[in-house]
Amino acid sequence: MGIFDKLFGKKPEIHAESVSAINLAENQVAAVVTGEAVELKTVKDPVFSSEMMGKGVGIIPQADQVYAPVSGTLTVAYPTGHAYGIQADSGMELLIHIGVDTVNLEGKHFTTNKKQGDKIQAGELLGTFDRQAISKAGYDTTVMLIVTNTDQYQDVKPTHLGQVNSKEVVLEVTK
């Protein structure tokens, strides 16, 4: 926050962003992007499809904005903008990975609004990506949303597959 923000209050855009935050139960995870939710086992990356990183869902994006799926702390924000790690206030650990092998783009076609250590609210904009440019460059744009500490839960399952809007509940965890 700059000196003018301290003197004159928050900018309207910041206030509007906090208003857009969503309320979730501790066991719920929101979709990070609008698109088609698919079983993680169907994504074209064996690290994710084998559930080696944990259980979750893939979303074939129909939009370029990535939103926080839970409230918590951004524990990892890759400089390339292709992935985020989040420690939810509930203790759940999440990975958002935008595309398959997109780390090779070295940040091209990605922007991020957050940095490691930032507190985030569910539904808050984390960053954007240019899915058309990424696809044109030869990369799969599927966004993976993974609960990386799956072993601490009885179950991690999609609430529904098919069309989802960002900020809608897409995963539920059972302790």
From TrEMBL:
GO terms for molecular function: kinase activity. PROSITE patterns: PTS_EIIA_TYPE_1 (PS51093), PTS_EIIA_TYPE_1_HIS (PS00371). GO terms for biological process: phosphoenolpyruvate-dependent sugar phosphotransferase system. GO terms for cellular component: cytoplasm; plasma membrane. This is PTS EIIA type-1 domain-containing protein. Keywords: Kinase, Phosphotransferase system, Sugar transport, Transferase, Transport. InterPro entries: Dup_hybrid_motif, PTS_EIIA_1_perm, PTS_EIIA_component. It is found in: Cell membrane; Cytoplasm.
